[in-house]
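seq:
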Amino acid sequence: MKTILFALALTGITFSASAQQYKKASLQAAGLTCAMCSNATQKALKTLTFVDKIDTDLNNTTFILHFKPGANVNIDQIRQKVEGAGFSVGKLVMTADFNGVKVENDAHVPFAGQTLHFVNVKPQTLSGEKDVTVIDRDFLPAKSFKKYAALTKMKCINTGVMESCCGNDKKGTRVYHVTI
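struct:
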């Protein structure tokens, strides 16, 4: 077996697991009023270890974060960097690479080392790159959060952590609420 793996390595053939991961994110920052504000936010976002590069759209105050392949993306750290620069997240859309992930309304789904709680979605199987919008408090305007919070009866939407409604074995674990 070692001989076969060594021979494959010599020929340049590699195997990679089709790991489910985040590819990029579209981040709309709220409160930016000038190029200096945008620059401060971009500099803060560049310090994230999982970010490979950032494209900006100053007209729409949007940053496209491209993630390093295989990197563990921390969604809360993205928000913290924006807030640390003095602004807030207006909208965060994550582009994720799904591999046969079954979702339905109010389902908790493990993904890329995190738990996603799908809100206002029809039962379906996600494969390939799909955009999911983070709808947790502090990731969108209060009015939009209130609208999404009304679409679920699960208490975890208000806290961002699993509650007794989510199953006692994971109570207190961070959960990200998303929609498609």
